[in-house]
Specification:
461 residues; alpha/beta; ten-stranded mixed beta sheet; binds calcium ion; Arylsulfatase, C-terminal domain; Alkaline Phosphatase, subunit A
């Protein structure tokens, strides 16, 4: 039913000393059996903010060191074609937590003064898990609505919440608002000045405490880091350590955090009972000297700052664009005994697939209105391919692209390299999106464009 250490902790709370005396035998029994095949696992989703495809050493960064995430990848699976549903925060988080494209619910970013939120008729991943006995906790950045309690995490599938309700820059001087940036516990603000230096450390402590104090039922922890979203701050004990400068320190602080969480699982005897996923909500923030995002948040010709260091690796584009650099992010999943170790796959997968995957892992029936498919057979079986064959790219409410197999059609309304003319890329041969092959394959362009238009029309119904 559950792991021995948790049973022990639970029992010790009840001061059942006689029962404790029997535990060595129980340990042996559990060790011999391992996890029952149908036992629902604990689930941890670690979601970085604006961490780019090329920001981890296992994804090729030449100077940032991420030994904990690299080890997690060695012990599990690492994907090189994993997509989020938007190149900015709010819709990407909505896509992750609903398993549905944001065009169906909330395609635009929220600000501190926003009155709206993710529509209340949407089902979020914590809800079915909660209904099936999971203990659920969210730590970190929410960004799916906060003007009413009904939009907040504790109303949407999480027993408890600790974190910032939106981005860490949504305060003066970065954003012109009078709403103070407070940490929240459940629905209550903690009316103290925010220390961003220790933001990642504080979140990590909350996450670890939740794991350590969880009862015998399975748990779901969603930890949405606030970093490396701007403005960037590293933990004091990591400051100045990275050759990449402050930005590197920030990523290495996240790496430290992942290491602490994995060490906690090991110490609690939960390693083999816990599926851990690490990914990011969109590509890296970069100085955009030409046009888009001309807001308080990102004025034109912004001077170069430490946060202009995120890397999309070999991919073109960055946060806020429908090039690969905006949408493709690292994805690492680890579940010892279930996910084979050391696998790297270029199969396409999307954050849309996480919701059904987690329900599948927990043995819970999936809703039939999802845009995602369970990737559990793919993740847990070396010979199985990803179920995902098609992915649609949206910039806000505008569809700008589709990927089918290795082919990507991009039709952008943005000025950058775009005339509204279709661009066709072969992403296996040309992940950098350097070579537009639209002229060579007019029939394929027409078919993919028709697919984009058909999906968009259906999604808006
Ligand atoms: Ca983000």
């Amino acid at each position: 039913m559950t792991n021995p250490l948790k049973i022990m902790k639970h029992m010790s709370r009840l001061a059942l000393l006689p029962a404790l005396l029997c535990l060595p035998a129980f340990f042996t029994h559990a060790d011999a059996l391992g996890q029952a095949p149908d036992a629902p696992p604990n689930i941890i989703v670690l979601f970085a903010d604006d961490l780019g495809y090329g920001d981890l050493s296992s994804y090729g960064n030449p100077t940032i060191r991420t030994p904990q995430l690299d080890r997690m990848a060695d012990e599990g699976i690492r994907l090189t074609s994993f997509y989020v549903t938007a190149a900015v925060c709010t819709p990407s988080r909505g896509g992750l937590l609903t398993g549905r494209y944001p065009i169906r619910h909330l395609p635009h970013n929220l600000g501190p003064d926003s009155r709206n939120g993710l529509p209340l008729e949407e089902t979020l991943i914590g809800e079915p898990l909660q209904e099936h006995g999971y203990q659920t906790m969210m730590v970190g950045k929410w960004h799916l609505g906060h003007a009413e309690d009904a939009y907040m995490p504790v109303s949407r599938g999480f027993d408890h919440y600790y974190g910032l309700r939106y981005s860490n820059d949504m305060i003066r001087p970065w954003v012109q608002t009078d709403v103070p940036l407070y940490m929240f516990r459940d629905l209550e603000p903690i009316r103290e000045p925010l220390n961003q230096d220790t933001l990642t450390v504080t979140y990590t402590k909350e996450a670890i405490r939740f794991i350590e104090e969880a009862g015998p039922e399975p748990f779901f922890l969603y930890l949405a880091y606030g970093m490396p979203h701007v403005p960037v701050y590293a933990a004091p004990h990591r400051d100045g350590r990275s050759r990449k400068g402050l930005y590197g320190d920030v990523i290495e602080t996240i790496d430290w955090s992942v290491g602490e969480i994995l060490a906690t699982l090991k110490a609690q005897g939960l390693d083999k009972r816990t599926l851990v996923i690490f990914t990011s909500d969109n590509g890296p923030w970069q100085a955009m000297p030409d046009r888009m995002f001309q807001t308080d948040m990102m004025p034109l010709h912004e001077p170069v700052k430490p946060w202009h260091s995120g890397s999309a690796g070999p991919l073109r584009g960055y946060k806020g664009t429908t090039f690969e650099g905006g949408f493709r992010v690292p994805f690492i999943a680890r579940w010892p005994g279930r996910i084979p170790a050391g696998r790297v796959s270029a199969d396409m997968l999307a954050s849309l697939d996480i919701f059904p995957t987690l329900l599948d892992a927990a043995g819970i029936a999936r809703p039939d209105n999802l845009d995602g498919t369970s990737a559990l057979p793919f993740l847990t079986t070396r010979a199985v391919s990803s179920p995902r064959e098609v992915f649609y790219y949206y910039l806000g409410a505008r569809i700008e692209g589709v990927r089918e197999g290795p082919w990507k059609l991009r039709i952008s309304g943005l000025p950058e390299g775009a005339t509204g003319e279709p661009a066709l890329y072969h992403l296996d041969e040309d992940p950098e999106e350097k070579y537009n092959r639209a002229d060579m394959y007019p029939d394929l362009v027409a078919r993919l464009q028709a697919a984009m238009e058909a999906f968009d029309a259906e999604a808006r119904r």
